[in-house]
Automatic annotation (TrEMBL):
It comes from the Eukaryota. This is JmjC domain-containing protein. Residues 4-52 form the JmjC domain. SUPFAM superfamilies: Clavaminate synthase-like. It comes from Lasiosphaeria hispida. Gene3D superfamilies: Cupin.
Length: 74
C-alpha cells in the first residue's frame, strides 16, 4: 500500500470503480474528501499540493482507520 500501485485491469476485475485523470501544465485536479489517489508523473514535474477544509467541516473524522503495519507516530 505505501508503495503499491494497482493496475486499472485489476481494479476492473475486482469491480472497483476508479477514474484516470491526465492533467497538463496549469491544470488542477481536485480530489474528494477521503478519496484515495495516486500520482504518476509522465515528465519532469514541479507540483504543489494544497489541502484545505471548508468552514464547518471536520479536518479528520472522529475515528480514523490506519494500517497496523505503518508507524504514523511523530
Amino acid at each position: 500500500h505505501a508503495s503499491l500501485l494497482i493496475s486499472p485491469r485489476r481494479l476492473k476485475l475486482e469491480s472497483i470503480q476508479f477514474k484516470l485523470i491526465c492533467a497538463g501544465p496549469g491544470e488542477m485536479v481536485i480530489t474528494e474528501p477521503r478519496q484515495y489517489y495516486a500520482v504518476i508523473n509522465l515528465t519532469a514535474s514541479l507540483a504543489i499540493s494544497t489541502n484545505f477544509v471548508f468552514l464547518g467541516e471536520e479536518a479528520l473524522p472522529a475515528t480514523l482507520a490506519q494500517c497496523e503495519k505503518m508507524d504514523y507516530t511523530i
